[in-house]
Write a structure and sequence with these properties.
heterodimer, A: 490 residues, alpha+beta, Arc Repressor Mutant, subunit A, BirA Bifunctional Protein, domain 2, four-stranded antiparallel sheet, 22 helices, 17 strands, flat, B: 542 residues, Phenylalanyl-tRNA Synthetase, Chain B, domain 1, Phenylalanyl-tRNA Synthetase, Chain B, domain 3, 4 domains, ten-stranded mixed sheet, 28 strands, elongated
Chain lengths: 490, 542
């Protein structure tokens, strides 16, 4: 006999019978352990359990109004004893349906009048559905004897969606049986339970023996702590780039429009640069662009390329970076300024990016991206395609298609798509291309640059990789979700 | 990216069925979003406004699949005789105009709808919601032949399209729906004059707001006059060319117009484009593919170029509707597209360099592992938050001078960048209240503030624990363990913070600087956040 069972039987043998509350109070055990003990005793017929049929009722919003007057009652009151109302004038459809069902009204040539039974009800106001609803509404507790007499009405009320009844079988009383008394007598559980330093040292167990436990008894639940899924997937991506010979770099989250847009040849009147899509800051409103040389060459690039006036003021506006390409372009500039570089230079970064979005399950205001660049001589588009396909194969995405695309800062440009045939899902993995010559020369670099950037969060929505339903769960950090989440398969 | 809807029927008439569209469109850079019974929805990239037009997509498909040759396609049928005089007033407000005359149009409902869709899409995307570019269309038979005037005013009267009574330009601007919608596209919101186009008798359109009822275009219309106005000369001439080609593809004839402005006379449209020379060597150096001059010639023809070969050099003339082709690099991208991105042979980047992780990120990961070892679950919260969640809930004071603030947000709950992590971890506990205790969370991430005028970004570790026996001594022992793991030598001193219970709050001080705080969270804060069990918390900068 398990010690929990023993505790219950011990208590009952003194009191003979007890309510659940009394047992809970007397025996300090977690509720599920206690329930387990009672159930296993009851299965061996060592205790007898009396259960109570209890009902819990939930009332809809309408039900609260209806308890004063049902729509069908309202309808016949409005029609009145000898009244006639054209059906077209009546908006109370529920009233008509139930008025007809109850046989209170008749409809002739589109005119509604009261039947005899309708007139009778008008006088008495005694409506069984209403009585039943009031009873349920006011009852402190409901058991089978309450419900039985009004069964027909309850079924109508629940069909109308006014009342939902749920049955809860609660343990009312537990008593010890003969079998239980006998088992208790027989159960001379003796011997040592919890070991202690002293017992071990003195070899006390040799004389007293060791108790045998019920190893099926429930134990307290324990949980594993782990990385957040976003961190885990980001690290897998970072690891893949490092294994491919890339050096990890970083850059600022609070960025000037200059590095986020202008240095990347995004025209100053481009729609994504409006408040609609980008988080502009009101404090600090502007950031100083310290690289004077880059400032003047970028200005020239814009005025020549877009044939429009370029404003340094607009370029100095502070934004939350909208892509990690701002980190890439800063590093293109760093490499250009450095005296010696061993070519090719291969860099990547990963981090948060921000979009002024209306947030929903697929759109978040803060997202995560990885960006990469290769700087070198004689690099081609075929090198870029190879790098991307190799990377995706490394993280387990084999069926990757390369398609044409467009970005203001690359030419030629591409996008990589992943077709998950099993789930009929297509994910845009990355956009990339060869950085425009105008941009590299504005940065003072006489090399070819391959560049790309891809989203991390969206990968988690794919069923094969992780299968999240909504990105909104990411930041909620519900601990139950984090404890029980599945693996990230990339 | 612009999302556009086309009629499948028009494609089917040219022999492009759904399967073919699904297969071919992505190859020329058009993403297929959705296909319904009658329509197809696609995404068009901003460099290709010509593809906002159904006829533009059809022609691209025809060239790409060698079903049509670019030679001899787009010819102006002659001069229309229309002369548009641009006044100084109009020039000051919206300087550029171009016009076209189209004859022998055979509209049906669908064709008229696709022309209108195209011009709407063009002026809303490429034309930046009509500010940079707007298009007006008029029934030519209702326009007095000869001279037109592009002017600006306020009191001139006309009946706006879809209205029944005469209104002045100013009334239309401030009273009509279109007027209110687009008033901001005119400098000074129209107070210094509203541009309009008129013939010798009446106003044809109020620019860029609304056309006149007098020259309404219907599916019966056979000849039209198109005006394109804007603030960028290049955009106006691009739009004129795209519209001209679209009508030519529809089978109509296009005639040019003369624009007189500032003593100069110009003809629109201008179809002539400069010849661009490319070589196979350039193609190989950029794309990484080897092609012969003959192959290169065929590939460029499939992208709509008129091309000819002189030895190893290919000369191409970009089609008049392409607005994005200026140099050899642009043509080479197109040749790559015609070759097929899926056919380009992969080539490995030669490199002997070892990769490496960012050292800061590595240090963070090391601390992460220590926290997980202590039984804490990692949380990731957004850096975007609001004053209420970040300050008020914890009884902390909001200081607008030192808080990084967002100018305008579509989401109400986003107004600032977080200054602390504990508020969000408490939120996470509140979110998890129905889950079994004990609960322990940690997060490592950036917090933001302003130091002088520069933003200051620091990385912090924060952790919290909630259970019935959570107390100061538990958090203190965790903090001490973590400080040791982080190699931070610090002193623990009395601290003060409204989020914590007074007398159960400690400051972590290292090198004379306060680098962190920990203690028992105040019951008032717990009750603010609907947390029912005791909570301890710590936040450390590193």
């Amino acid at each position: 006999m398990h010690k929990y069972e023993r505790k219950v039987l011990d208590f009952l043998s003194k009191k003979h019978r007890a309510t659940m509350e009394e047992i809970e109070e007397a025996i300090a055990l977690p509720k599920d352990s206690l329930m387990w003990a009672i159930e296993s005793l009851s299965a061996r017929k060592e205790v007898a359990v009396k259960k109570d049929e209890r009902y819990v009722a939930t009332l809809s919003e309408e039900a609260k109004e209806y308890s004063k007057e049902f729509p069908e009652e309202k309808l016949i009151r409005e029609i009145g004893n000898d009244g006639k109302i054209p059906i077209s004038k009546i908006k109370n459809n529920v009233g008509i349906t139930w008025g007809k069902k109850n046989g209170w009204i008749s409809i002739d040539n589109g005119v509604v009048t009261l039947t005899d039974s309708g007139k009778k009800h008008l006088k008495s106001e005694n409506y069984p559905q209403k009585e039943a609803l009031r009873l349920i509404k006011d009852a402190k507790k409901l058991d089978a004897t309450d419900i039985k007499p009004i069964n027909a009405e309850v079924s109508n009320l629940s069909k109308r969606g006014l009342v939902t009844l749920k049955q809860h079988n609660m343990i009312n009383e537990i008593s010890i049986t003969k079998e239980g008394e006998a088992a208790l007598e027989k159960d001379e559980t003796s011997g040592i339970g919890q070991l202690s330093r002293e017992i071990i040292k003195n070899k006390k167990w040799e004389s007293s023996g060791l108790q045998q436990y019920d190893i099926r008894a429930p134990s307290e639940k324990n949980y594993i702590s782990r990385f957040h899924p976003l961190h885990e997937i980001t690290d897998k991506i970072r690891k893949a780039w490092v294994e491919m010979g890339f050096r990890e770099v970083s850059g600022p989250i609070i960025e000037s429009a200059f590095w986020n847009f202008d240095a990347l040849f995004s025209p100053q009147d481009h729609p994504t640069r409006e408040m609609q899509d980008t988080f502009f800051l009101s404090n600090p409103k502007r950031l100083k662009i310290k690289d004077e040389e880059a400032l003047s060459s970028v200005k020239k690039m814009h005025e020549k390329g877009w044939k429009e006036k370029w404003s340094e003021e607009a370029a100095s506006r502070a934004v939350l970076r909208t892509h990690n390409t701002s980190v890439s372009i800063r590093w293109i500039r760093n490499v250009a300024k450095a005296q010696e570089n061993e070519m090719p230079v291969k860099l990547f970064s990963a981090g948060s990016v921000f979009r002024n979005e209306s947030v929903d399950y697929k759109h978040m205001a803060e997202l995560h991206q990885y960006d990469g660049i290769i700087i070198g001589d004689g690099l081609t588009f075929a090198n870029l395609i190879d790098t991307l396909k190799r990377f995706y194969a490394k993280i387990g995405l084999d069926n990757v298609k390369i398609m044409p695309s467009y970005f203001p800062f690359t030419e030629p440009s591409l996008q990589a798509l992943y077709y998950d045939e099993e789930h009929g899902d297509t994910i845009e993995l990355t956009g990339g291309g060869m950085i425009r010559k105008e941009i590299t020369s504005a940065m003072g670099l006489d090399k070819t640059v391959l560049a790309w950037g891809g989203g991390i969060d969206r990968l988690l929505l794919n069923k094969r990789i992780f299968g999240m339903d909504s990105l909104l769960s990411l930041y909620k950090n519900n601990i139950g979700w984090l404890r029980n989440r599945g693996e990230i398969k990339i | 990216m612009a999302s556009v809807t086309f009629y499948l029927k028009e494609f089917e008439q040219k022999g492009f069925d759904i399967d073919l569209l699904k297969k071919t469109l992505p190859k020329i850079g058009i993403e297929v979003e959705k296909i319904t019974k009658e329509q197809i929805n696609v995404e068009i990239t901003p460099n290709r406004p010509d593809l906002l037009d159904q006829y533009g997509v059809i022609r691209a498909l025809e060239f790409f699949s060698n079903e049509r040759s670019p030679e001899g396609n787009y010819q102006i049928s002659g001069d229309s005789g229309m002369v548009i005089e641009v006044t100084a007033k109009a020039r000051k407000i919206r300087p550029f105009i171009g016009c076209l005359v189209i004859k022998q149009i055979k509209f049906n409902d669908q064709k008229l709808a696709s022309v209108i869709n195209f011009s709407e899409k063009l002026s809303s995307t490429y034309g930046r919601k009509r500010k940079k570019l707007a298009i007006g269309m008029h029934d030519l038979n209702k326009v007095k032949e000869g001279k037109l005037r592009y002017d600006a005013g306020k009191d001139e009267k006309f009946i706006p399209l879809g209205h029944s009574k005469e209104m002045s330009l100013w009334e239309t601007l401030i009273e009509s729906n279109k007027g209110m919608e687009y008033a901001s596209t005119i400098p000074d919101s129209g107070r210094k004059g509203i541009p309009f186009l008129s013939d010798s008798e009446k106003i044809l359109s109020m620019i860029p707001i609304i056309n006149s009822e007098a020259t309404r275009v219907t599916e019966k219309t056979e000849s039209i006059l198109i005006d394109v106005t804007g603030t960028s000369k290049a955009a106006v001439s691009d739009a004129i060319n795209m519209l001209a080609c679209s009508f030519m593809d529809m089978g109509a004839k296009v005639y040019s117009c003369k624009i007189k402005s500032n003593g100069k006379e110009e003809t629109t449209p201008q179809f002539s484009k400069e010849t661009i020379k490319i070589s196979c060597n350039m193609i190989e150096k950029t794309i990484g593919i080897k092609v012969t001059p003959d192959e290169a010639l065929k590939l460029s023809v499939r992208m709509g170029y008129i091309a000819f070969k002189q030895g190893n050099v290919i000369s191409v003339i970009p089609p008049p509707y392409r607005t994005d082709i200026f140099n050899a690099q642009d043509v080479i991208e197109d040749i790559g597209i015609a070759y097929g991105y899926d056919k380009i042979k992969q080539e490995k980047v030669p490199s002997l360099v070892d990769g490496s992780f960012d050292s800061h990120a590595e240090r963070q990961n090391k601390i992460c592992l220590a926290m997980i070892g202590l039984g804490f679950m990692e949380a990731v919260n957004s850096k975007l938050t609001n004053e209420k969640a970040n300050f008020d809930m914890l009884g902390r004071k909001y200081d607008d001078k030192t808080t990084v603030t967002i100018a305008e947000s579509k989401t109400e709950s986003i107004t600032i960048l977080r200054t602390d992590i504990i508020p969000q971890l408490l939120q996470n506990l509140s979110e998890s209240s129905s889950e079994p205790m004990p609960q322990r969370f940690f997060e490592i991430g950036e917090v933001f503030s302003i130091d002088g005028e520069e933003p200051r970004v620091t990385t912090r570790l924060a952790f919290v624990a909630e259970h019935s026996k959570a107390n100061f001594s538990e958090i203190k022992s965790a903090v001490e363990a973590v400080l040791e793991e982080m190699n931070i030598k610090a002193k623990i001193e009395e601290g003060e913070d409204s989020a914590f219970i007074n007398g159960r709050t400690a400051s972590i001080v290292a090198g004379g600087k306060r680098i962190g705080i920990f203690g028992e969270i105040h019951p008032q804060v717990l009750s603010n956040m609907h947390i029912e069990e005791p909570v301890i918390a710590a936040e450390i900068e590193f």
